[in-house]
Design goal:
The complex is a heterodimer. Helix content of chain A is about 30%, strand content about 35%. By secondary structure, chain A is an alpha+beta fold. In chain A, a hairpin with a 2-residue loop joins strand 2 and strand 3. By secondary structure, chain B is mostly helical. In chain B, helix 7 packs across helix 8 and helix 9 crosses helix 10. The chains are: A alpha+beta, B mainly alpha.
Amino acid sequence: MNARTPTSALAAIAVALAFSSLAIPAPVVAADPPARFQTDAEQRDDGSWMLRATLTRAGAVQSQQTVEFLQKVDFFGERWISLGSAVTDSAGVAARLYSPTSNGLQHLVARLAAGDGTFDSDVFDITVSGAVPAIPEGEPNLPIIKMWAFPVGAALLFLVWLALAVIFFRAVIGIARPTRAQATGHAPTREGQAESSPPTRP
Amino acid sequence: MVAAVRESRDAVALQEAAFRPMHAPGRWFWPLFLVLGALVALAAVGYGYQLLSGLWVAGYNDTAFYGIYEANLVAFIGVSYGGALVSAVLRLTNARWRAPVTRMAEGMALVSLLVGAAFAIIHLGRPERIWLLIVSPQAASPIVWDAIAITTYLVATLIFLYLPLIPDMAFARDRLGPSANRLQRVFYRLAAAGWQGTPAQRRSLNWSVGAMAVLIIPLAITVHSVLAWAFSMTSRPGWHSTIFGPYFVIGALYSGVALVIVVVAAFRKAYRLEPYIGLGHFVSLARIMAVLGAVYLYFTFSELLTAAYTASHEEASIVAVLLEGSWAPLFWTFMVGGIFVPLALSLAPATRKVRYLVLAGLLAVVGMWLKRMLITLPPATAPLIGDVWGTVQLTWVAIALTLGATAAIPLGLMILFRFVPILALHEMEEVDAEGAPESAHDRAVAVEGVL
């Protein structure tokens, strides 16, 4: 009885394998067609830009989808910085206001998360002029201060280190001196009395 | 005659207490040493992993270029300034109750400064490039001045700790028994610098200690201001503030005094120093802490009010996330736990007990660490392009390094007091000698807690 059990198990596996080779393959779920973007950008009177992306999939507009806008920058290497996101309306349009802080050609992208870690996206360019800098430069014109700031700072730093050295070595030398004087038999005197140098503690 | 015998017995007891960590560290010493050492070792592993993998393993990314390391840098260096300034101010004002706590405050200043300075290197993605600070410094860079300031302050702290130590090291040198090895003899002989206790030596030492106490105050204020300016000169909303210098200094003092309370309480308990450090010491320190906490509260209010009232978009967004947004839980935890509760515990007569004052100190230290996170992270993650806020990830590497650094402070102090007396013997004797008629009374008052 015990000897037959493995044989029957092997037979069962063989039958299962035979049936599995005949099995009908599972239906393949068709992947969503990629989203298509139609992007445009329009500059407004105040210098800001209205970025638009119209989202379609297989020809049908896609509403209530979150589209993210990004800008390609060169900051410690090329990377994309998010400008924010917008949700598509019933016409499939996602609109986002963008206030550039630098002039020139800018590479932007509108993208939609595909759900599997990838994105459907579209790259488009705008040429910016009249941008308002995020931090306007207004360097004060202080030629005399600029000329003297570093030497004065360096001199102050030198004085601090000098003071530290004086304090430290005055203590160490001042402590060592009486010991040397005693060793040579010339103990310094104070108020007319010879200084004794017994240890301060037992 | 009886009084002289009693005085002699008191002196022997004091000496025994001061050297207790060196001779009889206690049964808890090695287990605690191992636990703290393990945390430091874990931090070292984390840092090694970060060196191999990059700063991203500590939660840094494109949208959060400052993180927990910068908060740690400010927090640990801040408590160091607090420890040194407490000691210096108490010396200069000749507060006679200071003597038993100055050594611990100065030791804490040194150890926490070393830990804080380590974060100046840890927070660099490419630490080997620190060499460039030396070979090609840019005078206009706040980082260069930061490095100079921290180095200068480290030397000053070492001198400030060492000078008052000289007579005590001489005492240790004279007390070395026959079992002492050659290394110990050489160490204590060199550290004692030939001290014999002559009047000329005393004059020389007192002048230098006094001068150092004067110098270290403007130095500490300047150095912490330089650290604050590294933030406030970045033109970033939330950091670009004129009051950041004094704001950082007061914060450093507040957290520093708070940590002094905690450290003194821990070593007092561990080494049975109750006869020398009493409730009065804690009450006095807690009052100083409360005043500094109130000033810090005023600065915080002033900072938020002016930022909110100008209502520029960038500043307003920082105020909003702090008061009602994603950082609000942390901010209000700091306000209540880090300011209001410590103030109440420090000042209320009903909580004038060591355990409540230590709790106040502990809350203030943790609260101020949270505040450093709040100073660092919201502005660092605020968007300048677009309106998407960055995110900070609290990774195991960042947590391990923070825990390891926190553990390094008690560990460093435990090691330090294995080599130097925990109580400033010479200073305690001098203070007693200066105010001989009142000294016994003062000490009793301090210990009893009326002071």
